Amino acid sequence: MHWIDFWNLSRPLVALRYGATAAAAGFIEGGSILSLALAGLSGLLFVAGVYAFDDIEDLPEDRINHPERPLPSGRLSVRAARTFGIICLILAVAVAAALHDRTGAMALTALSAFVVIPQAHRLTERHWIGRGVSVFTFIFSAFLLGSAAATGPLSPRLFLLGEAIGVLHLATRIIGDERDLEGDRDRLRTLPALSLAKARRFIRNVLALSAVLLPLPYFFGFKALYLLFSLPAALHILQQSITWKIDQAGGYPGHWLAAVVILGACLSR
Q1: Do the Cβ atoms of 230 and 264 come closer than 8 Å?
Q2: d(CA 212, CA 214)
């Protein structure tokens, strides 16, 4: 057991993206530098805790799909991962509470409960609707946490931006589920319970919905500069939706598209 195993368990790149998204959302809403730092730190800790419990729940599949990860490889025990996850989630809620906004802290507390309680966690993993809701909520919570870094309620433009990015991320996660299908067949999971034709049709529809949603925040307070960032990304995603085929010829919607749109939102707030 080594610190690097806990680092890998926490999915540092995902944690950094989530924390950066929360900080960017706070910046869009006009939060102070300290509040942006707290929102980013809270988000980073939250993701680290979420993935610790996610890996515990997904251990049977990961032995097939991702045997190199700390838990299936045996470098970390389930007990160590659970302890690490609990500590991270408690710290995430505590830091969110330091923002003096109940909404962000309560949102992370509720999401943490779903993650920690196995029965609740399985509801979000083993049902098609639960899977979609959990993925979308996970991303949208970053924008909600970011809004806690500023005074006032969540603005319509940030709400719409969070929706668009959340829908885009949902498509990428479902694509990832298809790639991990082999290891998921032995358990009641999302794609094994569906036909692949339905899953791929869902992917096309979600990509198209994201493309439609991305430019909308402009009409609720962003400057015209926002369209220079969001429209090319929306058109690229729409093209992927149209050309999506069984062999994944439509391409994989990368996280860089979301980063471009969020950057445009920050520059045109």
Answers
A1: yes
A2: 6
Residue 109 Cα to chain centre, angstroms: 16
Dihedral angle computed from the Cα positions of residues 223, 168, 69 and 120, in that order, rounded to the nearest 10 degrees: 110
Distance CA 128, CA 193 (A): 8
Tokens describing residue 137 = 């909520």
DSSP string covering 76-142, please?
Answer: S-HHHHHHHHHHHHHHHHHHHHTTT-HHHHHHHHHHHHHHHSHHHHHHHHSSHHHHHHHHHHHHHHH
Cα dist. 33→26, 36, 93, 133, 144 in Å?
A: 9, 5, 19, 31, 17
CATH architecture of 1-151: Orthogonal Bundle (1.10)
8 Å CB contact between 167 and 143 = no
Average pLDDT over residues 218-231: 94
Q: Is the dihedral of CA 191, 200, 180, 114 positive or negative?
A: negative
Residue 53 to residues 91, 99, 152, 177: CA-CA distances in angstroms? 15, 25, 33, 18
Q: pLDDT tens across 3-21, in order?
A: 788 888 888 888 999 999 9
Q: Which two tokens stand for residue 9?
A: 């368990």
Q: What angle do CA 54, 57, 62 make, to 5 degrees?
A: 85
Which DSSP letter does residue 249 get?
A: T
Residues 88 and 45: beta-carbon distance below 8 Å: yes
Distance CA 177, CA 215 (A): 28
Rounded to two decimals, what is the model's pTM? 0.82
